[in-house]
What does this fold into?
Amino acid sequence: MSTGVIATRYASGLAQAAANATELDAWLGEVQRFAKAWRGSGLLRAVATNPGLSQARREAVLEPVFAELGLSATPKRWLKLIWSRDRLGIVPDAVDALGRLVDTRRGVLRAKAEFAVAPSPAQLKSLTERLEKLTGKQVVLEDSEDASLLAGFRVRIGSHLVDASLKQALSKMQRDLLAGLQH
It folds into this structure.
């Protein structure tokens, strides 16, 4: 079974345990803090996954981390369950999957936009509004710069890609010209 499927199952389990959306939002924030600490600390990963240390010693390392991050009982149990099955490495993927589940419940779509040059706030707002109108859902737009696009932008929502970049247009023109030469 793939890591993504396993991560989604763990995320779904935590989401189902929440009594309401407010509780789930709080838990999402808590496990996101842990995932950030996990990603950022090689020492935490090394100690928590060291097979040479007993379960009790590894737990002695994790408990202060849980306390420092302010984890409540259910997220802590969820992480311990994942850890007891030697799968702490999937926590970042499980947390991302949980974020997607929460977004789906809220009717929120996340989009990633790459621009050749940094857009103005007005351009970002306009693009977000157009995407919301097209999808009928609230859109949260994450933007970045990619100078290799030459001009224009590229937007990805889920598996859908809209490429309005000069790089794409030139690539299409090249393909069309080469196809014309072959006939």
